[in-house]
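Hi everyone,

Forwarding the result from last night's run.
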Amino acid sequence: MTLTQKEITLLTDLKSQEQLCIEKYGKYEQDAHDPCLKSLFKSIKSTEESHLSTISRIMSGEDAKKAL
């Protein structure tokens, strides 16, 4: 599957946003004192990492169905 320039630009922007979210939730996890909050932030960070992985696979040309 060949991506258009518009799709590549969108995916690049999404990838940057996901990376920023991962950094933020990682910091929130470290700063939280409540175990429930730590767990929540860790879970959200993991979800964001999954999103980033999916975007990266799509950008590398893997089958979109596999990536999702």
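The CA atoms of residues 25 and 39 lie 11 Å apart.

Cheers,
N.
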